[in-house]
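Supplementary Note 3. Input sequence used for the single-chain structure prediction.
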Amino acid sequence: MPTDAAHPQSTDELFHALQENHRRPYGRTRTVTAEELVDAAERFDEPVPLIHALLELQEAYTYGSDPRKSPVVFARLLTLFDEQPDAFDERLRHQLFWRFKWVANALIALPEIPLTSLRQWLGEMRDRYEKAGLGLQPYYGQAYQLAAHVGEDTTLAYELWAARRRTPLSDCEACEIRERALHRADAGDDERALEIWAPVLAGKESCQEEPARSVSYALLPLVRTGRADRARELHLAGYRACRRNAGMAGEVGRHLEFCALTGNEGRGVELLAENRNLFDEVDSPLDLLHFLTGVEVLLSRVESLGHGELPVAGYAGRAWTVASLRAEVRERGDGLAARFDTRNGTTLHSGHRRERLDRAPLLDALELTLRSRGLDDLAEGASRTDAATGSGTAAAPTVPRTTEALPESVPELILRARELGELGHPDARACWARLRTLVAAPGYTHPDDPAVGPYVRLCADLLSDEANRAAERDEFAVAVELQEEAAGLYDDAGAPGDAALAHACALLAAAEIPAGTPSEDGPEGGSEGGEGKAMADALTEAHAGLVRLHEETPGLAPYIEGRLLRLRASALGLRLQASGDPEHVAPVLAEVERLEAFALRHSIDGQVSGAKLLRAGTYALSGDLPAAVTEADALRERLTEHGPAWHLPRVLGLRGRLRLGLRDAPAAYADLTEGLRLAAAWPADAVDTGRLHGDLAEACMHLGRPDEALTQLTRAAEAELRAEKRTDAFCAYSNAAQLCLDLGRIEDCIALLDSLLTEPDVVAGKVDDRLVAQLRLVRARALHAGDDLKAATAEFVTLAAESAGWEDDPGSHAMIAAETAMLLAESGEFERAGEAVGRALAAHALAPRYEQLSNCLRELARLQAQQEGPDGLDGALAHLATAGRIADEARAAGFEPVGRSLDSALAYEHGRVNAYVGQYDDALAALEKALALVGEPGPETGSAGEWAECVRLAGLVEGVYLERPAAALTRLDAAVDRLAALGHTDEREQLASLAAQLRDEA
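The predicted structure, written as discrete structure tokens, is reproduced below.
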């Protein structure tokens, strides 16, 4: 598996390549590259480059779960040390002795290594440490780990280790805490174990492996001691740190076990799929044993719940069900445990394995994520033809009813379906679905009944129903094809009215195709174009076609004519929505009047309701919200008296949206909540509950209830998934993820997005790439907010590279590249940050993003000055100069920033940059300019915070660094008095605190 890395031609190139490889995640690529670099180092015939290359290779083997090769590499290092000790400086010598422990752990993980060899290696370690004058606490630590692994003399070995003083070569505090806690946990003392673990679980002690390892062990003790919420938090953060990592396969297995024992079997199956690589990539038998045991716990639980035939991810090369994979895993796991017990002469590993497999569930259900998926959801998704479909979040609080019992006989069922269809009744859908199944069954015989009509008419009915469903999913091209086919069959069946209606539906669906195509807008907003006009023109033509069709088809039944009139009015309503042209209002209202008069004359209550809904919507689109509310109120009264009752949720939804527009959030909340309650009286597909939940989320935000809004957003997404509107569902989930991020629920945000981004249709590229980019963008921001700078930067770099190809949306690329530059700078990679900001500026020239670019350049300047000091001043000032040019451009273009003034923010940053590099007089002058640009604060809160911050930094520079405390206090005291008089308490307290500090130091 050769890599693409160039072979180093000098030791400098070798060391650079080693540094680059060190930045890679552990895995095959890093390991293979490390092997190649050892080969390259050997060609230089110098010991030091070879030592560094061997150390890198051993680390790759150790953390890449390849314990068999780690001792071999270390043997070469030890030989080099014995032959050329002077080649090892103090740091390399420390590394060498530290890695005796790595070899001990690697040998423990290999059941083919005899126990005598393990003890011999510990003896070698002790002898080497004593000869070098090193403390023996690390040796006793390894002796305890061997005793714990074997299951003999554990207590004595623990006391010999734990009682000794730590040395520079001892494991880090976090790792030693883990071993102490596990000693208590193995003894059954969960409370004491968690008490010991506390500093690690709280993040106060950490290392490369911690707290991820400790978290995986602590999950079940936390649940057993009643701390389920804390276990949930740690599961989300801890799993993310170890997923797909072959070196932490055991930890993944414990997370799977946690899911299985807390009622999250569905999530466990999803996580198993995400970690399918571990079946083939884990070379450590001990890690594999722990992983497979966790997998078996999960699979056993899933099978016991009746889902043994559910497809799951397993070993490559064949398809697996829960039952078949469980059998395979059981055989392999039992075999591994037996090998370790045979080597050790005990039954410890088989016993521990059986203990894990025999554990009963700890909780019936613990909600781990915002998108908790049950096994029934997974089974439903697996049974569909398109493996990319499925359902998501927790169910809404109200469950839609099922359809009433269907007629047994086919003739009665057909007649019932048509009767309900003419009324627009929701139960018609179930009738058509049942008929579709019957007709598709082998041996179906169509009834010879004049009332039912010929078989070809039934086929047309089924096609028309399928077309209507496609249109509801915005699959307009599909709808057109199906309706035209249905129209032809209706003609063959001698039903010209139904044929005309099918042609009419096809006309309208064809006009909507431009709006139904996937959006090409960037992830941060839409791009303007001619789509609205094209849509309006298409709808104008469609309306003309509908009128002609209506006029040219005589003898229509009232229910068909009513639908044609409804389609005519809908076409003009959609045109108004697309164009926003006030001249398009009157034609809509005229068609609505025509529809309503006809429906009243023929007592078609459903079309009367449809007319009033269209009229209310037209008023809303024209900006007359009070008139729209009045119409909606009248319609609600009519529906209560005359029906149809299934229109009530839709009307309440409209009224709720109107009241949101009128800024009456409490009334909107009441309407939308009532709409959802009434929707539960009808089948799930009778009402657009996704829209109701989404609007209710908006009402919750206006009412200051963000957590409830988050719940409603996830329910909206779930409803859209049930309706097979996957784009709408992903948009709702994207909004939910962003709200999570805004609320500081970082791990919830990341877990939700991880679940979405591993959906089969996302992986297969079936979801709009810009929507997926938006999801990844929010995830990258969440990773950054969660202090995972490395992962966030990697994701931003990838997004920036991809968005560079968005020729239709350079503005989004400018924004993404700018954020990428800031993260690279935060990582200290200023050269790459400069390249990224250069790309952002090039895109900005095509689609200006004044505020984002200004913010980026100022942040780059701050970071470079802060991290590099005087050496970074020139680079920082260059960034500020570019930011100044952008501010000039923005001013000339009449741009108004959403946040701070670009000019005052720039002046402030000049002050901060100069302060970082010790140019205090220049810093103070810049801050004086910033204060002048901001202006004196008033009673409003807008500029008070910015003004106070400028005063604070000016006071700090003047009072501390320029050693002018009197002048600084005069400045601060005056600002404190002014802010107090204006009622800006928080800003006043900050400045008062600094003033008190200066007085204390005076």
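The chain has a mean pLDDT of 91. The longest strand covers residues 311-312.
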